[in-house]
Amino acid sequence: CKPFLTYSQKEVEKIFDVNVFSQFWTVKEFLPRMINLNKGHIISMSSMAGITGTPNLVPYCSSKFAVKGFMDALFLEVRANNPDSNIHMTTIHPFVVDTGLAKKPRSRFQSLIPFTAPETAAAKIISATRRNIEYEFVPGWLCFVSAVTKMIPRAGALAIMDFLDCACDPHDD
Fold first, then answer.
1. Beta strand pairing status for 105-106 and 167-168?
2. For the whole model, what pTM was predicted?
3. Where are the strands (E) in the chain, listed by range?
4. What residues of the chain score a pLDDT lower than 70?
5. Neighbours of 127 (CB within 10 A)
6. From CA 106, how far away is CA 123, in angstroms rounded?
7. Helices 142-151 & 154-164, crossing angle to 10 degrees?
8. pLDDT, tens digit (0-9, with 9 covering 90-100), for 51-99
9. Are 27 and 74 in contact (CB under 8 A)?
10. Catalytic residues
11. Residue 41 DSSP code
12. Residue 125 to residue 92: CA distance in whole angstroms
């Protein structure tokens, strides 16, 4: 978590290697077998940061937007090649999962937009997978906020984002 201009090329490449390319290559390895069996479920970790963007997380947000785009396009490609496919896909969009990755996250209304315990996030991911949910937001009501902010003028979306004050302050290290 730091300003964009302070990231090195190596740091940005590592973020994309971990968040994007690892998912590409894993899916590329397993998808042919799923297609042959006509069943399977691909679960991918994006983020609310991959829906809205966040200051001090530009490479991270970019990688999570890429994951969302990957899953959206892959879903449409699998569907186009086999409309009756039994291969399901779930993209997870958590706000903050308290893993220690983000050292200085903030939210004005912590009771409404809580930092989620890893166990709670895992339970929501498993539940979404079992129900074949295409997108799972953690917490769930952020789906509504995300949709509203995409339908209103940018000034209104910025006002909502400023009011909620959800961000990640730069890390000291």
1. antiparallel
2. 0.83
3. 40-45, 87-94, 96-97, 105-106, 115-116, 135-138, 167-168
4. 96-116, 139-141, 164-169, 171-173
5. 11
6. 23
7. 150
8. 888 888 899 989 999 999 999 999 999 999 999 999 999 999 887 666 6
9. yes
10. 60
11. E
12. 7
